[in-house]
Write a structure and sequence with these properties.
The complex is a heterodimer of chains A (438) and B (488). Chain A is an alpha/beta fold. Chain A has two domains: 8-280, no CATH class; 386-438, no CATH class. Helix content of chain A is 22%, strand content 38%. Chain A has nine helices and 20 strands. Chain A has helices at 16-24, 31-46, 107-111, 119-125, 127-133, 144-153, 387-395, 400-416, 422-436; strands at 90-95, 98-103, 115-118, 158-162, 172-178, 183-185, 188-193, 198-207, 214-225, 230-238, 242-253, 258-265, 270-279, 285-294, 299-308, 314-323, 328-337, 345-354, 360-369, 375-383. In chain A, helix 4 (119-125) crosses helix 5 (127-133) and helix 7 (387-395) packs across helix 8. The two termini of chain A are 31 Å apart. Chain B has 488 residues and is α/β, with parallel strands linked by helices. In chain B, 21% of the residues lie in helices and 33% in strands. In chain B, helix 2 (66-81) packs antiparallel against helix 8 (194-202). Chain B starts with 43 loop residues before the first strand and ends in a 10-residue tail after the last helix. Strand 20 of chain A pairs antiparallel with strand 24 of chain B, so a sheet runs across the interface.
Chain lengths: 438, 488
């Protein structure tokens, strides 16, 4: 810990003066939003940092949760990485919390009522709609303090609204880039699909400039799928090697709706990802997927919750980690079946592929079942590449390095091929492959 | 300290009411075999509540060496300093009133070697539980603990001649300190948890066993733990050492009458399997369902040693017990087989702990639980494979069966693996008895109740078969589920 600050008010960066300045720049936004931000700032100050006895933070590196010395970035560099080379409906590009590029929604979709805008713009133009869905179902996985910080200081992020019955084939893309040393970003994205609507959202979290700069990112998103809606959400994280990152996702699935959320984790020094799905109506389905390439001395901390509230709901979780070098991963998942959620079918699986003798995988797959007519199971495996498969490939003349690469990509393919969009699939495959070229 | 003698007597067989024989109207589980009590006069009584004087009293009655008293007093401070683990465990723990508990009750510290010498009031309890009969039939040695001390302890000559030591903790620390002091409190340190600290402060009774090099004890040794007095806390301490190449099977059973107030049982059990040794430890826990059963059990397994815990929890109000094995030597093997049955008002919070600490070590956990009525069963497990080990394997399976709509089950495993040469696998499932299965059996003329009973027995059958014959019969009787409420 640095000795520069003795209390949160003495922080050189994110202090109450900085918050007041942030707020005054947003004076034209709705009053409820400004009040929400003020309350969140006070909550952030009041909440303690996670402690050793906090079960939601078991095995996490608590010493790494050092928020001191970060500040909001001032400039917005335009020279930033870009991975969204696949066909898309529209795009929002944020650099250091500012919108630097956007492509607008095609006129036919706009005419049907599709809204895709930066969060601040949406607050101004569609305030009541945003208010209705903003943190409607907050995630309960331990990061309340960091969610409060996000709410207080959020400036970037997207708002997507797809009205009833509208189906959009190509993805909506939101990119967040952070450049510079000791800078922080707090993106918040809200996605609302009306009844029977269909859409795909891809969100990138990237560091620009030198890959070694110390950065802080605390992101939140709210995903809502109304009755019969179908939402695909992809979040791809490739922060700098020295980033402390939090991302808290809330997923609400109504009757007969289906949400597929796939999160790709590649960067950061210590990155925590929380994802909480709620199955709210009969026939709802949540597909929770994640791929992590844990290299170097990074720590990836993933916490999930599948809450089955209504009967006849299904969920399926598959989190795959490939561990290299001295990396550490934590997977802690819980399925809760509430007393009324009879006929639940829930599954949860964590697979850790150990590619180094010094990597460390923690797995805490949990179940809390309060209804009896259910099918619930979980599985967790931690093992190296199957020696027989490796031998099989080598016996056919494939070099050991290449055989290993093939088997690792096959390990990820099980998750990636759940995506229908082939161009998106290819872009993510390329992003993962870039991690193994070094 | 003067014992409050007027509170000692419990009315004879007051609780032995056949109308309470069925605990659950839909699914009958026989938890009533131990639900009786006879009037007993205690010679030593430390009164209610816990303080340093109580600890000195216990140590004095036992005429202990001064290092043991020091160990106890230090442990008491640790107990006071440790918080209740309610940040992860059930809040029900807060209902334990340590001031109401009686920490020591006995008729003397010297166990009898023949049943004839055992005082009648105690003997009839054990006769009713069938202990002397079992001893004649298939046991190598028996220790029968009544509240704080063993009333009876005997090893068959044939086993004693092999050099096997089987006695209680008081005798062992007095007569064989050179053997037991080395491992006492080493597998489970005093400060392991709040209840291991409590046990270390007030322990009394339990078995100390030493099996010399190469000796294979053919028949099981058995201990039977009986709580007789109301508001009593039983804190037995067991240490089993199997020297190189030795083999031993130990079985324990436990019952208590059902009082209106709660009772505490908090044991510490340490097993030491030296090079190539094998220890099998079998528990059938059938405490009355007002007993808090908070037990710490752990083994250390050296090179090529094998430790197997077979743990069956049927009774108690709350059980928290996670038998563990520290796999300290190369190729050591640890296994936990766990069966839990939680009925109305019961919470079975059980599981296993496997700590790999050497190359090529293997561990297996198989846990099955059944939740009936509003019963709650919880599996909690730890599998730990820390740095720079090679070739470790773990396989964990937990299956939960839910009988009624309001039954509850939880699973909380924690798995830590470091390195790329290990294979670790965990699987858990939750289900109810399939309707197809019941329908199939009803087609063939079974009633729904019989079909359900058969299905539930089938669920645990592969584990029950691993018990020694005599115990598996006992267990089947205990878990005999009958949907029409009659006890089989």
């Amino acid at each position: 810990m640095s000795a520069t600050a003795l209390s949160s008010s003495a922080l050189p960066g994110l202090d109450s003066t900085r918050f007041a300045a942030h707020l005054s720049q947003r004076a034209t936004l709705p009053a409820w939003w400004l009040e929400t931000k003020k309350a969140a700032w006070n909550q952030f100050l009041a909440l303690p940092l996670p402690s050793r006895t906090d079960e939601n933070w078991r095995f996490s590196n608590l010493k790494g949760l050092d928020l001191e010395g970060f500040d909001l970035p001032e400039d917005a560099p335009k020279d930033i990485p870009n991975h969204s080379s696949f066909p898309q409906t529209a795009e929002l590009v944020f650099s250091n919390r500012q919108l630097v590029a956007r492509s607008t929604v095609p006129a036919d979709l706009a005419a049907k009522g599709v809204i895709f805008a930066p969060l601040d713009e949406a607050l101004r133009d569609h305030g009541d709609l945003v208010k209705q869905y903003f943190q409607k179902h907050p995630a309960h996985l331990g990061s309340a303090k960091f969610v409060a910080l996000n709410t207080a200081l959020s400036a970037s992020g997207g708002f997507l609204y797809v009205p009833a019955g509208v189906e959009v084939a190509l993805p909506f893309v939101i990119q967040h880039t952070l450049s510079g040393a000791n800078v922080a970003t707090f993106p918040h994205t809200i996605v609302v699909l009306g009844p029977r609507a269909k859409a795909t959202v891809v969100e990138f979290f990237l560091s620009g400039g030198a890959a070694t700069e110390r950065q802080l990112a605390a992101g939140v998103n709210d995903l809502h799928a109304a009755e019969g809606a179908q939402l695909t959400y992809v979040g791809a994280q490739h922060w700098s090697r020295e980033t402390l990152a939090f991302q808290v996702n809330s997923i609400a699935v109504e009757r007969d709706a289906r949400v597929l959320a796939l999160n790709l984790h590649l960067g950061g020094r210590q990155s925590r990802h929380e994802s909480h799905s709620r199955l709210l109506g009969p026939g709802a389905h949540s597909e929770m997927l994640a791929l992590t390439v844990a290299s170097g001395d990074r720590e990836f901390d993933q916490r999930t919750l599948q809450t089955h509230i209504a009967p006849n709901t299904t969920s399926n979780l598959l989190y795959k980690n490939a561990l290299l070098d001295t990396a550490k991963t934590i997977f802690s998942g819980l399925i809760i079946v509430e007393p009324d959620a009879q006929k639940t079918d829930a599954y949860q699986k964590n697979r850790n592929l150990m590619l180094s003798d010094t990597a460390e995988a923690h797995s805490l797959p949990g179940l809390e079942i309060q209804a009896n007519d259910v099918k619930c199971s979980h599985g967790s495996t931690s093992a190296r590449i199957d020696a027989e498969q490796e031998f099989y490939l080598q016996a056919r003349g494939i070099a050991p390095v290449e055989a290993r690469r093939l088997l690792v990509s096959a390990f990820f393919e099980e998750v990636l091929n759940k995506l229908d969009d082939e161009a998106l699939h290819a872009a993510l495959t390329a992003l993962i492959a870039s991690q193994f070229k070094k | 300290m003067t014992p409050p003698t007027d509170t000692l007597a419990a009315p004879e067989a007051l609780l032995d009411d056949p109308s309470t024989a069925v605990e659950n109207p839909t699914v009958g589980i026989d938890q009533t075999a131990g639900n009786f009590t006879y009037d007993v006069k205690y010679e030593f009584d430390a009164g209610s509540g816990l303080n340093e004087d109580v600890i000195r009293y216990i140590s004095n009655v036992k005429k202990e060496a001064s290092w043991i008293l020091d160990f106890r007093l230090k442990a008491y401070q640790t107990f006071l300093a440790k918080p209740m683990p309610t940040h992860w465990a059930t809040k029900d723990l807060e209902n334990i009133d340590f001031n109401k508990i009686r920490y020591y009750l006995s008729q003397g510290t010297k166990p009898k070697r023949t049943w004839d010498e055992v005082p009648d009031d105690i003997k009839k309890t054990f006769e009713r539980l069938g202990i002397p009969e079992q001893e004649r039939k298939f046991l190598a040695g028996v220790e029968a603990q009544f509240d704080s001390e063993a009333a009876y302890s005997n090893v068959k000559d044939i086993v004693a001649k092999q050099g096997v030591i089987f006695c209680n903790s008081t005798e062992a620390l007095r007569e064989h300190p050179e053997l037991f002091k080395k491992w006492f409190g080493k597998v489970i340190p005093t400060g392991d948890n709040k209840f291991s600290a409590l046990n270390s402060a007030v322990f009394s009774g339990g078995s100390f066993i030493y099996v010399p090099k190469g000796v294979k004890v053919a028949m099981p040794l058995q201990a039977y733990f009986r709580i007789n007095a109301e508001n009593f806390g039983q804190f037995e301490r067991t240490l089993i050492i199997a020297d190189e190449g030795a083999e031993v099977t130990y079985m324990e059973g436990c019952t208590a009458p059902k009082f209106s107030t709660s009772t505490l049982h908090s044991a510490v059990v340490e097993l030491v399997a030296l090079k190539g040794a094998k220890i099998q430890y079998i528990t059938v826990q059938n405490w009355a369902n007002n007993v808090f059963n908070l037990v710490t059990k752990r083994a250390i397994a050296m090179e090529d040693a094998e430790v197997k815990w077979i743990d069956c929890n049927i009774g108690s109000r709350l059980t928290m017990k996670y038998p563990g094995v520290i796999l300290k030597g190369k190729r050591a093997r640890g296994e936990v087989i766990s069966i839990a049955l939680a009925n109305d008002g019961q919470h079975q919070d059980t599981g296993a702990k496997m700590v790999h600490a050497a190359d090529d070590t293997t561990s297996v956990i198989v846990a099955k639980s059944i939740s009936v009525g509003q019963g709650r069963s919880t599996y909690r497990g730890v599998v730990h494979i820390p740095k720079h080990l090679k070739g470790c394997k773990n396989n964990t399976e937990c299956d939960a069966l839910l009988i009624n709509t309001n039954s509850r089950t939880d699973t909380y495993p924690a798995i830590v693996v470091r390195g790329d040469t290990h294979a670790v696998q965990h699987e858990a499932s939750v289900s109810k008895v399939s309707e197809d299965m019941i329908f199939y059996m009803q087609q063939r003329g079974l009633t729904e109740a019989q079909a359900m009973s058969l299905a539930v027995n089938g669920f645990v059958n592969d584990l029950v078969r691993q018990f020694p014959m005599e115990y598996s019969v006992e267990l089947k009787r205990l878990i005999d589920l009958e949907m029409e409420g009659s006890v089989g």
